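User: Show me a protein chain along with its predicted structure.
Assistant: Here is one chain, sequence first, then structure tokens.
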Amino acid sequence: MDQRICSDHVSEPKLNAIIEASATMDRPCDYRDRTAPTISAWELAEHFDTMFERFFVSTTGYDDEGWGSQWDEDTEGESVLDVLERVAGLTGEVAENVVELLGDMWFDRDTMAHQFGADPHFVENEKFDEPLNQAWQDMTDTLRRCSRITIAR
């Protein structure tokens, strides 16, 4: 599955910009008859894999003793599809294909196990490593200083 996706299907500004900056303009979007910059569905799924890794915590999968939380009736958090819809505006066939690709990425063929369980759910990570918190604070301080300088001129 090497389907191509154009920026019309993504509302998240950074991903939209990545797609728009793509050098691939000779392959049309597979979801809309439109020739525009596109990226592969796999590449888009890789961006979302990184997003889940950095900003979300799985509420499903296996704990340290091998017990699966996917057997709980009331799974905490949002499904992968719900997160993609909320965070990036992916819908329909595009969202379903990205969810399928993420499932492929998260499946270990050696152990025949899903990294986050068969029906993964996630919550937003509220605890970040200290360097990230410090980097965020430094950036916001810089932005405040820059905006004061710009306004003062």
